[in-house]
Amino acid sequence: MTQRSAPQRRHALTGSRIRERRTVMGIRQSDLARAVGISASYLNLIEHNRRRIGGKLLVDLARELEVEPTALSEGADASLFDALQGAAGESPPAFGPAPETGRIDELAGRFPGWAGLIASQHKRIAGLEGLVDGLHDRLAHDPVLAEAMHELLSTVAAIRSTADILVREPDIEPQWRGRFHRNLHEEAERLSARATAMLSHFESQGGRQGAPSTPQETVEAFFDAMDHHFPMIEEAGPGTIGAILVGVAGMEDPATRTLAERLLRNYAEDAARLPLKPFLAAALDSGFEPEPLLPMAGGDVALVLRRLASLPRSKGAPPFGLAVCDAAGALIFRRRIGAFSIPRFGAGCPLWPLYRALSKPMVPEASLLDLPNGTTFSAWSICQPAHAAGFGAEPVMRATMLLRPVEEKRAGSGGQPVGPGCAVCPREDCTARRMDSLVG
């Protein structure tokens, strides 16, 4: 049986939306039928989705029900539909049976308040997950925190040493005792000042309500807000980059704007090599599997992975995550995806195929990854030169990993056990662990 697209499913539920709206308004079926000039039995067939309607009858029904015709024919708007679909796709298996994604529009039509709440909660959860990732990265890599902690520990060590001398040597000459007391007082004052400064630093971070600070964070937030898809570039090329960045918060900083322009130029180059319309059509035909798309890219695996990660969800693309690291293993670009934590700074799990690809240049790999939270992801990875190198020049290598959640597969089903990174990974028996977990 041919599977209907999301717009077709929404259109097929026109009758359900008419019935729901009529019930909410307290209008009897016979009265509504009489008002639009049809029989009650015919309206009953319509309301049970057994008759397709359109044109004047749809307009007349919308007028009597005091809504726009599109509210009956299309139902939930695309943004709400995508949000609910995203929430369903990222729900962990611990919640029980998989959500009925084929009935999303029915949910939005019958219970718009609950649908909006679910979409809002999903957005908030995604934001909180990003904040947790950011706090973990900041605790591990914030230079201000690292320097402050070093100073605090040095001061505490000096106080402890001085106090130890005073305790162990009760017969110290008054002149030296006074000097030690003065040192204790000065070090205590210094400790208080440094602790206050560190507290002020954290309070300022909290006052920003998660706003990005570094160029990488600002540009990443911009790409996330655009869902990593830029229609203007797809249609008109790199000449639109300036217009895209007009009014974007943070782009007044030269370093941030330079980084954003570079990444958008890379995006434009990818879009020129694999134009959206033919690539999206081929991706739909392939079920969004990378391998059948390689001939279109001349065998450039990383290009196919990046383009899949940039496809718009509104056109039917599934959720994708993307991670790119350099030869040192440093993550230089990421597209986050729910349930799979990709750190902003530092390294992730050493068992990710992203890092394994670095030891096997030009060898693409497809694998399944089982996470501790019970979700399974398909992963495609490759390590290849970032750009063409001249004769005798050493190529700059980068590894790319594309991620896609697997709905029908669950943890323990044969995938590679991986984690989000040692600091927050609960797998105690992992042979690749480099540090104890902070979460127990």
Q: What structural keywords apply?
A:
single chain, 440 residues, alpha+beta, 6 strands
At a glance:
The chain is of the alpha+beta class and 440 residues long. Among the domains are: 6-120, 434 Repressor (Amino-terminal Domain) (Orthogonal Bundle), CATH 1.10.260.40; 142-207; 314-387 and 394-440, Beta-Lactamase (2-Layer Sandwich), CATH 3.30.450.
What would you say this structure looks like, in words?
The chain has 440 residues and is α+β, with helices and mostly antiparallel strands. 51% of the residues lie in helices and 9% in strands. The protein has a 6-stranded mixed sheet. The two termini are 48 Å apart.
CA-based shape: extended
Order of helices and strands: HHHHHHHHHHHHHHHHHEEHEEEE
What percent of residues adopt helix (DSSP H or I)? 40-55%
Strand content: 5-15%
Distance between the termini: 48 Å
The top level CATH class name of the domain at 314-387 and 394-440: Alpha Beta
Count up the helices: 18
Mean pLDDT: 79
Strand count, sense and barrel status of the largest sheet are: 6 strands, mixed
Query: What Rg is obtained from the alpha carbons, in whole angstroms?
Result: 29 Å
GO molecular function: DNA binding
Protein name: XRE family transcriptional regulator
Domain HTH cro/C1-type: 18-72
Pfam families: HTH_3, ScfRs
